[in-house]
Amino acid sequence: MIDFSGSMGWGRDEVREVIRLLPASTIAGYTGYVGTMQNYHGDIRVIADKGKYDDNAIDRLHKHGNNNIDLDALKCLLNKMSHAFGYQTNKLLVSKQMEQM
Q1: Pairing state of beta strands 2-3 and 40-49?
Q2: pLDDT class for 32, splitting at 50, 70, 90?
Q3: Segment 83-87 long-range contacts (CB within 8 Å, at least 24 positions apart)
Q4: 19 CB-side CA count, 13 A
Q5: pLDDT value at 98 more than 60
Q6: With helix as H, strand as E and coil as C, how does the chain read?
């Protein structure tokens, strides 16, 4: 999951380098809107999957630049991870957060 808000956004070459290094990965990006667009506050989209990537998705993420959906993006990532690795992922992350408090 890549934060594309403001100065955090990655360019095409950076995303392509990650794909080259990790060709079996799925990469998503996110950015927040200034206001709302069709009742949404931001955009989370897959930009690469198993070695194939979508330059248009990267370009669309660069059109905005707010960080108002960081939490939603992390929840989305956690949800995807829990489906891939099972419920233990959620349990582990929550327990690690509790240790740090």
Answers
A1: unpaired
A2: confident
A3: none
A4: 20
A5: no
A6: CEECCHHHCCCHHHHHHHHHHCCCCEEEEEEEEEEEECCEEEEEEEEEECCEECHHHHHHHHCCCECCCHHHHHHHHHHHHHHHHCCHHHHHHHHHHHHHC
